[in-house]
Write a structure and sequence with these properties.
- By secondary structure, the chain is an alpha/beta fold.
- The chain has 16 helices and twelve strands.
- It has helices at residues 5-19, 22-25, 48-58, 92-104, 122-125, 135-148, 152-160, 169-174, 207-216, 223-230, 255-268, 284-301, 329-341, 372-378, 383-388, 392-399; strands at 39-44, 64-70, 80-85, 113-118, 178-184, 248-253, 272-280, 309-315, 347-353, 365-368, 402-403, 414-420.
- The strands form two sheets. A six-stranded parallel β-sheet has the order 3-2-1-4-5-6, sandwiched between helices. A six-stranded mixed β-sheet has the order 7-8-12-9-10-11, sandwiched between helices.
- α3 (48-58) links the parallel β1 (39-44) and β2.
- The termini are close together.
- GO terms for molecular function: kinase activity.
- Residues 9-230 form the MOFRL-associated domain.
- Residues 309-414 form the MOFRL domain.
- This is Glycerate kinase.
- Pfam families: DUF4147, MOFRL.
Length: 421
């Protein structure tokens, strides 16, 4: 079989991303225009501006509104204002945009339609601290959560209870207008209430759960935040609240959609695909080690899959930051894989974030090849030491094996492909 492993893996990634783009998945989910009232478009996330552009290009009538996205992830919208702000740590631009969004939805009527466009990244981009909490405190807590190894569900549980807009509060501000939320999922399990901390969906989690998460990861918080959570001042509206009765939501694109598209691409190339899981979580280095063990079993014994094949997986791993290197969870996954494989023949791998940004770096991820181990040794790179320093970026940058796609303007989280020939 004649195949270029590097090109093959890059093609799978491109296919996966294209399958969950706003242009591909949105048109079928757009609701009918309100007969009498206004159509207001709001939303947040790394792909929110691209979604707003699809609305403008396909909506039959007038639209207006405000979208907040990450710096560099904007789109050329004419009717809907696009504001860019910081991610993953919120900034003043995001705080102001969130405040303006709440003002924008005031005074709506039952005849009005609010179209809320949500993708991953919205939690940081739509940051409006609860009463008595400062932006600086939210920034510090966000940084601590990102370094702690907490899952996205845990982080967003905390964020909801310290916010004036997340956890369903934005939808309540829109009442009595009808709110239709369209989502591209970046969270394992595709729970719409977790995506971007669910600004328009009721929230079953509690302040007590938020405190338990902070305690679990040993994150110290100021007295005012402790009081805010202990008193219940940060409690969110719950499922069953009648104010959500007219609203609806649709998860349009998920990691599973991306994996299935990549699987079809592999099959067309004559490589049998196996989707391992669409919602893997855990420490990136641990997940990398397990994937390496599976790949070696296939390469050496043809178990549990016969080669040639490609093993696909998605989800969102985490990195507990201990070192001072430049990382990203996909680079860390691949570096752990490299340490475990140490050049095992016939195994190639790619790991990228579908949003084009691995953590907070400028790359989407990286690619591993059987000769990565020897090429690194020739350059004097100590892979094990670099893994301990969380320096996956540095390792693959030195090898020329970073993948830099730029912003994709969508986000269904990690995409991993291991090709075994």
């Amino acid at each position: 079989m004649s195949i270029d492993p590097r090109q093959f893996l890059n093609d799978l990634y491109a296919t996966a991303v294209e399958a969950v783009s706003a242009q591909k998945c949105m048109p079928a989910y757009l609701p009918k225009q309100s007969a009498k009232g206004r159509t207001l478009v709001i939303g947040a996330g790394k792909g929110a501006a691209a979604m707003a552009k699809v609305v403008e290009d396909t909506w039959p009538g007038k639209v207006e509104g405000l979208i907040v996205t990450r710096y560099g992830h904007g789109a050329d919208c004419k009717q809907i204002e696009v504001v860019e702000a910081a991610h993953p740590v919120p900034d003043e631009a995001g705080r102001q945009a969130a405040g303006r969004m709440l003002e924008l939805v005031k005074g709506l009527t039952e005849d009005d339609l609010v179209l809320c466009l949500i993708t991953g990244g919205g939690s940081a981009l739509l940051s409006l601290p609860g009463e008595g909490i400062t932006l600086e405190q939210k920034q510090a807590l966000n940084k601590a959560l990102l370094k702690s190894g907490a899952t996205i569900s845990e982080m967003n549980c905390v964020r909801k209870h310290l916010s004036a807009i997340k956890g369903g509060r934005l939808a309540l501000a829109c009442a009595p207008a009808r709110v239709v939320t369209l989502l591209i999922s970046d969270v394992p399990g595709d729970d719409p209430g977790v995506i971007a901390s669910g600004p328009t969906l009721p929230d079953p989690t509690t302040c007590a759960e938020s405190l338990a998460i902070l305690k679990k990861y040993g994150i110290e918080i100021p007295d005012n935040i402790l009081k805010h959570l202990e008193s219940g001042a940060g409690e969110t509206p719950k499922p069953g609240d009648p104010r959500f009765a007219r609203n609806e939501h649709h998860v349009m694109a998920t990691a599973q959609h991306a994996l299935e598209a990549a699987a079809a691409k592999a099959r067309a190339a004559g490589i049998t695909p196996y989707i391992l899981s669409n919602d893997l979580e855990g420490e990136s280095r641990d997940v990398g080690m397990v994937h390496a063990a599976l790949a070696k079993q296939v390469a050496k014994y043809g178990q549990p899959f016969a080669k040639p094949c490609v093993i696909l997986s998605g989800g969102e791993t985490t990195v507990t930051v201990r070192g001072k290197g430049r990382g990203g969870r996909n680079a860390e996954f691949l570096l752990s894989l490299a340490v475990s494989l140490q050049g095992t023949a016939g195994i190639h791998a790619l790991a990228c974030d579908t949003d084009g940004i691995d953590g907070s770096e400028d790359n989407a991820g990286a690619i591993y090849q059987p000769d990565s181990w020897t090429r690194a040794a020739e350059q004097g790179l100590n892979a094990k030491a670099m893994l301990e320093n969380n320096d996956g970026y540095g390792f693959f940058s030195a090898l020329g094996d970073l993948i830099v796609s730029g912003p994709t303007r969508t986000n269904v989280n990690d995409f991993r492909a291991i090709l075994i020939l």
